[in-house]
Amino acid sequence: MCGIVGYIGTKQAAPIILDGLSRLEYRGYDSAGMAVFDGKKIDIQKSAGRLKILENLTRGGESMPGVCGIGHTRWATHGAPSDANAHPHFNKAETIAVVHNGIIENYLQLRKKLTGKGYQFVSETDTEVLAHLLDYYYRGNPLETVTKVLHRVEGSYALGIMFADCPDQIFAARKDSPLIVGENEDGCFIASDVPAILKYTRKVYYVDNHEVVRLRADHMHFYTVDEEEIEKEAVTIDWDANAAEKAGYEHFMLKEMYEQPKTISDTLTPRVKGKDVVIEELNMTDDELREIKKLHIVACGSAYHAGMTGKYVLEGLARIPVEVDLASEFRYRDPILEEGAMVIVISQSGETADTLAALREAKSRGFRVLGIVNVVGSSIAREADNVMYTWAGPEIAVATTKAYSAQLIALYLLAMKLGKARGKISDKLFASLLTDLRRLPDQIELLLNNKLRIQKFANRYIGAKDIFFIGRGIDYAISLEGSLKLKEISYIHSEAYAAGELKHGTISLIEEGTLVAAVSTQPDLYAKTISNMVEVKARGAFVLAVTCEGNKEIEKAADYVIYIPETNPYFANSLAIIPLQLFGYYVAVGKGCDVDKPRNLAKSVTVE
Ligand code: AGP
To answer: Does residue 166 register a pLDDT over 90?
Structure first.
C-alpha cells in the first residue's frame, strides 16, 4: 500500500522523510517522491522505481533543503508506475502539493469539472484531482480549503498537504486509509504507520475518519471536516524499536517465522489462567456465549485461511455453525445474518479495506462484531465491538507468518471458551487441549530447526511451473495457506484443492514430475488422503506428504515425507504450516525473489 511521511519542525525535512519512507517499504510500492518548502517555493522530486533512486536523486535529501515537507511511496491504482504518476502532485501554480493513499472514487467527475474550468492534468492519477481542487477553492485559508475539498470527494484517503504561502504548517486528513501523527521536541510528523516515525517519537495520535490535522513546528490541532476543533488522546507506542529491524536474519519473513513460538506464547499466556481459558476482551458472559446461534467469519487472504481452520475447530469443539466468507464477497452479497449471529473479522493490519467494509456492513445491521487483529489501535480494532489482539508484534514481511499463527491460536482459544460454555467439551478433553496448546511453541521450534532439510528439498523446485497442495478438512485449510505462501513470494503458479475435489477436473493438469504436496494431519482422513495421493501418483506426480509422526502408512504413497509432532488434530495447522512456510520461503530465496517485498503486493490492502 502507499506510504506517507510528513515533517515540520526545526530539522531538515528531507532526510527524515526518506528515512520514514524506507521504513514503509514493506507496504509495497513502485515509485516515490518528496515535496519540501525551500524557503521560497515548494520543490518536488519524484521518480518511478525504488526509494534508492529518489535518495540518489536528492543526495539523501541534501539537494532539498527545508524544514517542512511531505513524502510518498506509491502503490499504483490509477495509472502505471511512472515519474509523472508518482506523488506528490502539484497544482498548476506549484503552490500546493499533495500526497495521497486511497482511491478518490468520483475523480473522473471532478476531473471533468476541473477540465471544464481550464485545469490541465499531467498525470493519470486520481490524486492529481485533489491538487487542482485545492487550488480551485483556495482563497488564502488553508484549513477552510482542505475541508471544502473533503466535502466534495468520495472514496478513501489519507492525505498530506502543503501550501507554499503557509510554510509554517502542513495538513493531514483521513477517511478509511490509515494515518497517524506524532510529535517530539524537534517537530511534528505525519505517517501511514508507526514504523516510519518510531525512531523519532513514541507519542502518536491515530487520525480518525473525517478528521483534519494542522501541524506546526511545535504543536498540532485537530478538527472535524466541519472545522470544529476537537481534542484527541495520544497513544504511547511500546513496541521494541528493533522489532522493526531484521536482527541478523536475511529477511524479515525468516525472522518472523522464527518469532512464531514467542508469538504463540504471547497470544496464549494472557488468556490461559490455571486450567481455564479467560478471554476478558470478549466481554461476554457464558450465558451470552450460549445465546450465539451462528458465527460468520470474514477476512481476506491468509486471515481468511485462518478463518477456514476456525470453522473446523469451532464447529468441532463448540458445535456451533460457522460460515466463512471472503470479505470482498461478504460486503456485496447482501449476506443473510439471522438473529443470534455474531460476526468475527480477522485482520493482521486491521486496515484491510474489504474487511473493514464487512465489519461496517455487519454493524450497520445491528450484529456484534469481534475483531481478531494484530495492530493495536488500527481501524478494525477501534470499530469492532470487541477485539482479541494477536500480540504478534509488528509484522514487516508482506507474506504473513507469525500473525497467521497467532490468529489460529486466538481461534482455538475462542473455540475452547465457547465449547466449554456450551457444555460441549468435557473437563478431561479441555485439560488435554490445554496441554497440547502449551506444547505448540516448543514443537514449532523443533520444526523450524528442521529448515536445512526443507531448504534442500525446496531447491529442487525453484524451476517448477505448477505446484499443487491437497488436503481434506483442516488439511484443506492448511493447503490453502501453504499454496498462498509459495505463490505470493516465489511467483510460481500454485493451487490448493480439497483432496476429494481434484478428480473433478484439475487432476487433468497433473503431469510427469508435477509436485503435489499432500497435507494429512487428520487421522480420521488418513486413508482417504492416501487414496488421493495414489491417484495423482498414477498420473506422474511427485508427492510430498506433510503428516503426523506415527503415520507410517503414508510412506507407501508418498515420495517424500515431512513429519510433524503429535498434537490434537484441531491444532495440527499450527505445526503443518511451518514446513510449508519454509518451503515457500526457500523456493523464493532460491529464485532470488524479493521475499519481503514481493512484486505487486502490499502489506495492507487499504483499497478495494
Ligand atoms: C498474506 O501472506 C498476504 N500478505 C495477504 O493475503 C493478507 O493475509 C491479506 O491481505 C489480509 O491482510 P490483513 O490480515 O492485514 O487483513
So the answer is: yes
- pLDDT, tens digit, 9 for 90 and up, residues 488-513: 999 999 999 999 998 898 899 999 99
Report whether 441 contacts 257 (CB < 8 A): no
Residue 16 in contact with ligand 1 by CB distance below 6 A: no
- For ligand 1, the distance from its centroid to the CA atom of residue 417, given in whole angstroms, is 26
Cα of 305 vs centre of ligand 1, distance in Å, is: 10
**First-to-last CA distance in the chain?**
11
- Greater confidence (213 vs 195) lies with 213
pLDDT (0 to 100) of residue 608: 77
**pTM summary value:** 0.75
What ligand 1 atom has the least distance to the C-alpha of 399?
Answer: 2
The residue-averaged pLDDT of 153-158 equals 93
Residues 132 and 110: their CA atoms lie apart, in Å, by: 10
Tell me what pLDDT residue 241 has.
61
Whole-number Cα distances in Å, 17 to 8, 42, 362, 365, 537: 10, 15, 38, 42, 55
By residue range, what is the domain housing residue 87? 3-238
Do 219 and 72 lie in a common domain?
yes
Ligand 1 center to 361 CA (angstroms): 20
The CB of 158 under 6 Å from ligand 1? The reply is: no
- Please tell me whether residues 323 and 466 are part of one structural domain: no
Domain boundary among 446, 477, 507: 446
Examine the domain organization and report whether 382 and 492 are in the same domain. Answer: no
**Is 401 touching ligand 1 by the criterion CB < 6 Å?**
no
**Cβ of 347 less than 6 Å from ligand 1:** yes
Q: What is the pLDDT of residue 378?
A: 85
Residue nearest to atom 10 of ligand 1 (CA): 301
